[in-house]
Q: What sequence folds into this?
């Protein structure tokens, strides 16, 4: 165990029992211990100590924010949201900006970006630049990419700007256009969707089986069982190729979106 975790470990597991029976710790000492845990990034343990301090006496605004932040940074988003209801039950308008910021970050990080966007007017901040960046990140994460241009011009966060620009220049592949390419010239959709494997299978399957069918019809006429057999196989490759062309366009778009979402995950919301 790293040395910096040893003292918090011992204090967390042994001193609470001692404090219950002998009242060793007062509220001041508990807050000092909680702040120590918070400073050492032991957020889950810090949250428990802040809760203990709040139980013993009325919390200060700073303690409330530290508790909210501890729950958020330990990914305990449900409890962070519950804290908002406990401490600011009269509505968002009575919340200080520091609490609004923490609650906004909690919603965005907990995959409730759409909820944040619905409440963004109520969670308006004095720091307009931060508010703009939070809204832009929420729109990116919620998939509302068509509206990002309204906020992009006011953003100064480099990572948000880069991702937004990639979205604006992202090439979207049409499923109808891909299917049309495949229907007119089998295999040509591969140049459009970059799915050369399925395009090659369609081209070879249609071409080779059509050639075999043509040989059969040329030899035995339209009643050729050999010709109709290979003609049906060729038609199967043709129909399946059109279906695959539609899927290829969808997969291409999904791959593009996945890369963008992966870049979003690298953004540290506390740097906004």
A:
């Amino acid at each position: 165990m790293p040395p910096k975790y040893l003292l918090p470990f011992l204090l967390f597991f042994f001193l609470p029992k001692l404090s219950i029976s002998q009242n060793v710790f007062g509220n001041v000492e508990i807050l000092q211990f909680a702040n120590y845990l918070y400073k050492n990034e032991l957020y889950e343990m810090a949250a428990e100590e802040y809760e203990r301090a709040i139980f013993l006496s009325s919390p200060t605004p700073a303690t409330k924010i530290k508790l909210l932040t501890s729950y958020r940074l330990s990914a305990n988003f449900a409890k962070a949201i519950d804290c908002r209801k406990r401490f600011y039950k009269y509505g968002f308008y009575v919340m200080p900006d520091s609490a609004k910021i923490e609650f906004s970050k909690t919603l965005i990080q907990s995959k409730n970006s759409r909820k944040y966007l619905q409440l963004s007017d109520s969670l308006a901040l004095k720091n307009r630049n931060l508010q703009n960046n939070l809204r832009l990140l929420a729109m990116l994460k919620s998939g509302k990419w068509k509206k990002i241009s309204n906020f992009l011009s006011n953003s100064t966060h480099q990572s948000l700007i880069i991702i937004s620009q990639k979205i604006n220049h992202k090439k979207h592949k049409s499923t109808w256009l891909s299917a049309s390419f495949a229907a007119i010239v089998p295999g040509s959709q591969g140049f459009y969707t970059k799915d050369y494997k399925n395009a090659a299978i369609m081209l070879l399957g249609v071409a080779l089986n059509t050639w075999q069918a043509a040989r059969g019809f040329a030899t035995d006429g339209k009643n050729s069982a050999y010709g109709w057999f290979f003609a049906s196989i060729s038609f199967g490759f043709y129909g399946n190729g059109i279906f695959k062309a539609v899927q290829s366009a969808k997969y291409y778009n999904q791959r593009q979106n996945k890369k963008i979402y992966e870049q979003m995950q690298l953004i540290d919301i506390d740097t906004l």
